[in-house]
C-alpha cells in the first residue's frame, strides 16, 4: 500500500475517527463522508490526525464546518495530534479558546 493512501478507522463509542495518509483531491470525498457520519452523535468526537501527511484546504475547511455543526448539536470536535502545519492553522484561525468550535490537543511533529 502506498504511504499516501488514505485509511480511515471509525469507532462509535465514543465517536472517534483516525485518519492516516493524505487528504487531497483524490481522497477528500471519502474523508468528508467519514466526517459527516460523526454528525448526530450527541457528544464529543475525536479526530486523530496523527497519521496525516497532508491535508488540502478544502478538507481543513470541512473539519471546521464539522466542528461548528457538532457544536450546534451540543458536542465538540477535538482534533488530536495534527501535523504542526495544521496545528498552526487550526490554532490561529479556529481554536476553541478563541470562541470557535474546534479544539486541538496532543503533540505531533512534522512528518
Keywords:
31% strand; 111 residues; 34% helix; five-stranded mixed beta sheet
Describe the protein in words.
The protein is an alpha/beta fold and 111 residues long. It has a single domain (7-105), classed as Transcription Regulator spoIIAA, CATH 3.30.750. Helix content is 34%, strand content 31%. The protein is built from 3 helices and 5 strands. It has helices at residues 28-38, 57-72, 84-94; strands at residues 7-12, 15-23, 45-55, 77-80, 102-105. Strands 1-2-3-4-5 form a 5-stranded mixed sheet. α1 (28-38) packs parallel to α2. The longest helix has 16 residues, at 57-72. The chain is globular and about 35 Å long.
Give the topology, please:
Layout: E1 7-12, E2 15-23, H1 28-38, E3 45-55, H2 57-72, E4 77-80, H3 84-94, E5 102-105
Parallel strand pairs: 2-3, 3-4, 4-5
Antiparallel strand pairs: 1-2
Amino acid at each position: 500500500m502506498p504511504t499516501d493512501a488514505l485509511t480511515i478507522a471509525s469507532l462509535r463509542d465514543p465517536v472517534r475517527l483516525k485518519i492516516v495518509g493524505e487528504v487531497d483531491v483524490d481522497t477528500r470525498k471519502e474523508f468528508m463522508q467519514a466526517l459527516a457520519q460523526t454528525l448526530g452523535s450527541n457528544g464529543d468526537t475525536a479526530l486523530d490526525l496523527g497519521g496525516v501527511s497532508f491535508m488540502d484546504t478544502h478538507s481543513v475547511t470541512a473539519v471546521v464546518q464539522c466542528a461548528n455543526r457538532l457544536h450546534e448539536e451540543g458536542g465538540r470536535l477535538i482534533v488530536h495530534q495534527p501535523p504542526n502545519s495544521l496545528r498552526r492553522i487550526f490554532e490561529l484561525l479556529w481554536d476553541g479558546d478563541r470562541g470557535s468550535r474546534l479544539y486541538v490537543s496532543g503533540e505531533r511533529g512534522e512528518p
